[in-house]
Predict the 3D structure of the following.
Amino acid sequence: MRKKLVLFIAVLIIGNSFNYSSAGNVIVPSSSTGRNSDPNPVKVKAAIAELKSLSKKEKKERVKEIKTEMKALKAAKKAGDDPSTNTLLLVILAILLPPLAVYLHEGEINNRFWISLLLTILFWLPGVIYALIIILGD
């Protein structure tokens, strides 16, 4: 019975991890108030028109600028050493559902998520330990 339950939960997690939208992975920045808001359609159309009008070299420069900004944002996120309620909630979730906690911490499905899922399916305790290492180690 337990094996069936664990298998069912694993299938649910894996099934819900796939993105079925036709738009692909689109990152929409949130507003400064912290709530997600829909982007202004006029600004989006203007940005797309501006991007299409750029030359290949200018597009590459913009992509490089975006990548450096993303690295700076990730570094700033990692620099925040104060324990927050998010970390506490992730630790509680890591005890209950380790793969879900790793996914929420990482923000994407990557190798760490799959390792956590495998350890949780095989034996629950190693999955919990691995998820705690991932969440508290970064």
Q: What stands out?
A: Helices lie at 2-17, 41-53, 56-79, 85-96, 98-106, 111-122, 124-137. The first helix runs from residue 2 to 17.
